[in-house]
Amino acid sequence: MLGTDLLAALLRRNWSVDSPWMNDLDITNPQHLEKIRRRDIGPYTHIINCAAYTAVDKAESEAMAAMRINAVAPGLLAFAARETGAKFIHISTDFVFDGFAQNPYTEADPPNPLGVYGKSKLQGEQNAIKENDQTIIFRTSWLYGAHGPCFPRTMITHFLKGTGLKVVNDQTGCPTSTVDLSESICQAIELSIPAGIYHATGGDQATWFQFAQLAISTYREMHQLPNEIKLAPCTTADYPTPARRPAYSVLNTAKLESTGVSPHRPFPESLLEYCSRVDLTPQ
Ligand SMILES: NC(=O)c1ccc[n+]([C@@H]2O[C@H](COP(=O)([O-])OP(=O)(O)OC[C@H]3O[C@@H](n4cnc5c(N)ncnc54)[C@H](OP(=O)(O)O)[C@@H]3O)[C@@H](O)[C@H]2O)c1
To answer: pLDDT of 172-181, one tens digit each?
Structure first.
């Protein structure tokens, strides 16, 4: 999802970009990574890793796979980048935090992931930094984009089918558009920001219920649909999932903005663009 919009943003800047398919570059395959180190592909100025194991609930029963892709591979990629003089840019998550905070998390706050996915992503951050001290990590949250399954797409699909839904209203985070995050990554490259961890999310916070309401009403108004919105708020306890999720995972983005990277567009504006681009055919 992020990779597709990021590729478009990089190409819009007329930068030369390689975007290999998994057949050619499986990030868990040492022989494939060797192609970077041997310069059979590249050399590159930057290597950006958008690949990940993102099935948060499934990760609870597939810890080995999650760890291989999210924890081990970023270290290997960071090492390959270092060997070839490329800067390594990696994407991480708000799920590295436990969600017990009352104020937005800064990069200085100690992580404490609740589930396997968050643990694997945290380990990936640490491995990448250990292998390459020039690594830049963007922690993002609640990503949505036109190219792939995501929360607003699911909500709009249910709305169009007329299905009533209960949506969790006691978890708060910052929805983040893949288009806006891609713009942040491009600006960070242009500005040559220092290595380190940065929080990179949309600036507006919402609960999943509020996110669903806004996504559906935006789509409904855009397409002038008469359909009724059948949403009801529920609690996390009403909607049990295999993985525990942070109740509050709002990230403070001041550090990134202090480098000159622009804040994201207001949530309604990004969502409006999303609703105009979303492809609702089954994927
Ligand atoms: N989605 C969110 O809400 C969210 C929130 C916070 C942070 N993030 C982070 O943001 C980044 C982008 O997320 P996303 O939602 O765009 O993810 P996504 O849509 O699930 O895309 C991840 C991609 O990685 C590919 N992949 C998996 N294993 C691979 C491997 N071994 N080698 C090469 N490619 C592999 C997947 O291919 P297949 O589809 O073929 O498996 C998929 O195309 C990830 O680092 C994620 O952890 C996401």
So the answer is: 999 999 999 9
